[in-house]
Prior knowledge:
Layout: H1 13-28, H2 35-42, H3 46-53, H4 56-64, H5 70-79, H6 85-97, H7 102-115, H8 117-135, H9 144-164, H10 175-191
Amino acid sequence: xxxxxRRRGSPDTRAAILTAARAAFGEQGYDLASVRAIAAAAxxxxxxxxxYFGTKEKLFLACVAAPxxxxxxxxxxxxxxxxxxxxxxxxxxxxxxxxxxxxxxxxAVFRSGLGHDRSARMLREFLSTQILRRIRPxxxxxxxxxxxxxxxxxAAGLVTVRYLLRLEPxxxxxxxVVVAAVAPTLQRYLTGPLDLPAVP
Length: 200
């Protein structure tokens, strides 16, 4: 039987798929990148991509090396509606970043996003499609895009100061202290008045 040219399952197949997927997600973004195109670039059948990774979302999480599935982490926080969402989101965030295994892995992803253009694009795609998109329905409709970006800025700032720079006393503050100090700001970004100046 003639060979089709498609790579069959082998030890390097998974790595080839990840390489092709990182390029596709980095250049086209999550929404525009397709599993079929990624498979073609990797020289495999699309069914083999699904065999190794299951879904496009799982493939993307593997490319980003996400230490946890945002859908699972955020499910409980989002279930309670808009009231108190800032606190629940922050507790979910801290459960990952303060974890002995997930914390260092998340920090590695964050560092990578700061150092390389393609990694930065991947990190932005991760934030927008895997986290902010899930939160979006609970945002107050006025200035929703800005609210989402402000939430991301708060999270990135907390990561930078608490986990990357390890600036005290925030670096070693108990989670309850962080929640008490930061959650009200998140809640305002989610649903409160922003009191923005009029822009001509």
